[in-house]
Each structure stands twice: as structure tokens, then as C-alpha cells.
Design a protein that fits this description.
The chain is of the alpha/beta class. The chain has two domains: about 270 residues, Aldehyde Dehydrogenase, Chain A, domain 1, CATH 3.40.605.10; about 180 residues, Aldehyde Dehydrogenase, Chain A, domain 2. The chain is built from 15 helices and 20 strands. The strands form five sheets. Strands 15-16-17-14-13-18-19 form a seven-stranded mixed beta sheet, with helices on both faces. A hairpin with a 5-residue loop joins strand 6 and strand 7. The longest helix has 21 residues. The chain starts with 6 loop residues before the first strand and ends with a helix.
């Protein structure tokens, strides 16, 4: 593509779309065809990130005083614009992130549904009025916004995850600076444009392109930024956490995890088979809730694996805009190399690759970041592939003798992102939900089947983006107080 035709993405700061002052740029390319050069992503200079934080801080003074229903109305208008532009946005997601068109459309619909829920919920803030121990006195809880929030967003759900965090931050009265993933800048621009066109006041929503260790780090260090949400690699999250901890500000990170599915001998095997395939191979296995391990009890292991291998080997990788394609590419070269490294190490440690395990280079796949959908059998708990999430369509299989043995595999110190169990036994369902440590627990459903309006998800964000005070009010007289004390 000639330089004159190359698109250069812009920042959105203080209500204006601005050409970046950056001298360095990162390429935005189609992961299904690296010869499809989409545009240049500016690696914005520090002054641009600082300017975004400062205009957001200025806008916060009035935005926090805007009535909550009015803040919710902005989110509802943005949801309507997302709905009107849904097909365009879905096709942008496919081109720059790689997922299939069906998956991109589903992501857009998820984003719209959550924006509608969140916008309506703004008029119903969570709180409590509590009777106290004496007459003439009552108490209630009062939520306040934090200030400026920095959102450093991942590439695996480039619309839905940022939308959820952005909508929740806005309805609670915060202002926002979005720093999108380098791989998905255009999706981020569409998202922010919907809020801008919906009437977001100047400085309430801002967008700055750049790298996490530069632009992101500048935002985290800015004194106006009071909370940071980041999705991405463990290393990026750890670095951002250290910065946030030094400033004693709110921090939340989302990362890929080795999310397991346990299939027991009494399970509906057809249902389990569909659930494992959906969880492991939708979105090319790259989301934070993707299934990365399946644990099979001995009586069903061979039959289940035979059916699984047949279904997975029949999957068709390719450009997601082709609606006959069932599997998109990895998002970039680094992710495909990490996935292949994990597969090769597992093979060297004694695991057996039942299908896939190699890069796909034939025909139209030659210029893309494609890996054949992969199943790795005989994986032991001490193997790296059992402990580190492969960023691609890779599923590790562990065989066990019993449900009790399966549960012993997941006594990890930190909660999993997601876990699932397939069984018809109600007692085992309850034992699983009581034993497994995971943020979302699924029974007879894929690890990817989350719905963000559930209170555990919605309220977690509500708590993250606000601080709560206990308020005590005396409305009685001194006579009332003495009478209450029996004097």
C-alpha cells in the first residue's frame, strides 16, 4: 500500500479527533492475510497521554454532578448507535482481529445488550438504607465516582470488554481514557465514535493509541488517574500492577487462564462435546474465558476423544469474512509462536498431539497467522501447557480415574477465570461449585457462556469504579437521645 493511501489512526482528546504527534507507528494488518495492510497505529508521545488525562480530569468536575439517569441515557444512545452500525463494526473486527463473522456479530450483540442493561441500571444504583440502634438516627451507604479511569484494552474481545468497562465507568460518574490494543485500533475508534456521536461531553471519553509500556505507563503514572483496568498478557498486567501499587490506586487485570472442563462418566456426551468445542475453539481459543484443558474420567476418555478429534479435524480455518469458515487465525505472529512453543514443549515432555500442532500454510492460509486446531493428549499437571494458556486453538487433555482426582488438579492459590463440569449428578454439581475456585462456574455449559449482567460481574465493576461511605444522620432531639438511653 502506498504511503499516501495508508490510514493513520487518530486520537480522540477533549472532544476532537486529532492526528498524533508520534514519529513511530505500529502496523495494523489483517491476521488472516498479512499482505492486507490496514493502517498505521501511532505510538503516541507522552504529552498526548498527559493531555488526555488532564482533559478527563477537567471534565470529571461536571460529569460527576450530572444526574445518574442522564449518564445512563448517554450509554443508551451509544447502544442505539452500536446497533445501527453493528454490521460495519463486526466486519472491522473480523478484518483486524481475525475472528469469524458469526463470532464478531455475536460480540457486537453482546456489547449492545450490556450497554442497554448498564444504561438502564444507572437509574437504579446499588445502595442501602439501614436502621440504626437508637431513635432519631439512620444510616445509608453513599457511592462516589473515583475520577479519571484508564482502560488498557486487550485484542481478544476488542469491542465487548472495553464497552463493558467504559459503560460502567461512565454511569458511575467517572471519566475515561481508553488505550486500545495495538492490534485493534479501528474497533476502538468505532466504539469511542459511538459515544462521541451519542453526545458525550468534551473530555468525558478519550482515546489515545500507543504501547502499554509507553502510553499506558504514562497514563498510570498521571496523578489524575485514580483507577486502571487492563486486559492482556501476564507480563503487561504485572508491570501495570506494580505502577498502580506505587501510587495506591485502584487496579484490575484480565488475563487468559488455563480454564478447565471436567467431563464425567454420566455426562451427556453430545452436549459435553459441543460445549468443549465451543469453549476451546470459538474466537480461535484466544479469549480470557476460552477452555484450555479438558479433564476426562477413564470410562469415557477414549470414546469422547475419538469424537472430539473427528469434529476438530474437520474444522475449516480461513478468513472470517467467508461464512463457511469455522476458525479464524491467531491475532499476530507472537501469539502463534507462543502457542507452537507450548505444543512442542508438551510433545517433548511426553504428551501426544492427536491433531493439529502445526502452522497452516496451504493455499489462502499461506499469508495468515493460522495454526491447525490442536488437541494434545496425555498432559500431566506439571507440564507447562497445563499451567500456561496457549493463545490459540489448542486444547490440553488430562485423563483421571475419578471425579475426586479431577478436583485435586485445581487446588491453585488464585481463582481461575472460568471452569465447567459436565454431569447429570446433582450432588456432584454442588460439590464442584463448592470446591472449585473460579470467577465463573458453569454446569453443562461452555466456559465462554458468561452474561455480564449477572450481579457478580456487574457489581464487581460497580464496586471497582466507585468508593462507598457510610453516612450517619441524627434527626432527633437531645430529649429523644436521653429517652432512648432510658434517662
Amino acid at each position: 500500500m502506498s504511503e499516501s493511501n495508508t490510514r493513520i489512526y487518530r486520537n480522540y482528546i477533549g472532544g476532537a479527533w486529532l492526528a498524533s504527534l508520534a514519529r513511530r507507528h505500529a502496523p495494523n494488518i489483517n491476521p488472516a492475510n498479512a499482505e492486507d495492510y490496514i493502517g498505521d497505529v501511532p505510538l503516541s508521545i507522552s504529552d498526548e497521554a498527559i493531555a488526555a488525562a488532564e482533559v478527563a480530569a477537567h471534565a470529571f468536575r461536571s460529569w460527576r454532578r450530572t444526574p445518574a439517569p442522564a449518564r445512563g441515557a448517554l450509554v443508551l444512545r451509544a447502544a442505539q448507535l452500536l446497533a445501527e452500525r453493528a454490521e460495519q463494526i463486526a466486519r472491522v473486527i473480523v478484518r483486524e482481529q481475525g475472528k469469524t463473522l458469526a463470532e464478531a456479530r455475536a460480540e457486537v450483540q453482546h456489547a449492545i445488550a450490556y450497554a442497554e442493561f448498564c444504561g438502564a441500571a444507572a437509574a437504579m444504583p446499588e445502595g442501602a438504607t439501614v436502621p440504626l440502634s437508637s431513635a432519631g438516627r439512620f444510616g445509608y451507604t453513599h457511592r462516589r465516582p473515583l475520577g479519571v479511569v484508564a482502560l488498557l484494552t486487550p485484542d481478544w474481545l476488542p469491542l465487548a470488554l472495553p464497552l463493558e468497562r467504559l459503560a460502567q465507568a461512565l454511569i458511575t460518574g467517572n471519566t475515561v481514557v481508553v488505550k486500545p490494543a495495538l492490534a485493534t485500533p479501528e474497533t476502538a475508534e468505532w466504539l469511542v465514535r459511538c459515544f462521541a456521536d451519542a453526545g458525550a461531553p468534551s473530555g468525558v471519553v478519550n482515546l489515545v493509541h500507543g504501547a502499554s509500556d509507553e502510553t499506558g505507563a504514562t497514563l498510570i503514572d498521571h496523578p489524575a488517574v485514580r483507577a486502571v483496568w487492563i486486559g492482556g498478557l501476564h507480563a503487561d498486567i504485572a508491570s501495570a500492577r506494580r505502577q498502580a501499587d506505587m501510587r495506591d490506586i485502584r487496579f484490575m487485570g484480565e488475563h487468559r487462564d488455563v480454564n478447565p472442563v471436567i467431563v464425567l462418566e454420566d455426562a451427556d456426551l453430545d452436549l459435553a462435546l459441543s460445549g468443549v468445542i465451543t469453549g476451546a475453539f470459538s474466537n480461535a481459543g484466544q479469549t480470557h474465558t476460552s477452555t484450555k484443558r479438558v479433564v476426562l474420567v477413564h470410562p469415557v476418555a477414549d470414546a469422547f476423544l475419538e469424537a472430539l478429534v473427528a469434529r476438530v479435524c474437520a474444522m475449516r480455518p480461513g478468513n472470517g469474512l467467508n461464512e463457511q469458515v469455522s476458525l479464524g487465525p491467531c491475532t499476530d505472529e507472537a501469539q502463534i509462536q507462543q502457542a507452537l512453543d507450548l505444543i512442542e514443549q508438551a510433545r517433548a515432555e511426553g504428551a501426544e498431539v492427536l491433531c493439529g500442532g502445526v502452522r497452516a500454510r496451504n493455499g489462502e492460509l499461506a499469508n495468515g497467522f493460522f495454526i491447525r486446531p490442536t488437541i494434545v493428549d496425555r498432559v500431566r499437571p506439571d507440564m507447562r501447557i497445563a499451567q500456561e494458556a496457549a493463545p490459540g486453538p489448542v486444547l490440553a487433555v488430562t485423563r483421571v480415574e475419578s471425579f475426586a482426582e479431577a478436583l485435586t488438579l485445581f487446588h491453585q492459590p488464585q481463582p481461575l477465570v472460568a471452569a465447567s463440569l459436565y454431569t447429570r449428578d446433582g450432588a456432584r454439581m454442588l460439590r464442584f461449585t463448592d470446591s472449585i475456585r473460579a470467577r465463573s462456574i458453569h454446569i453443562n455449559a461452555p466456559t465462554t457462556s458468561n452474561e455480564s449482567h449477572l450481579p457478580v460481574h456487574h457489581n464487581t465493576l460497580l464496586d471497582f469504579f466507585t468508593e462507598t461511605s457510610a453516612v450517619y444522620i441524627e434527626y432527633g432531639t437531645e430529649h429523644d437521645r436521653l429517652q432512648d438511653q432510658g434517662i
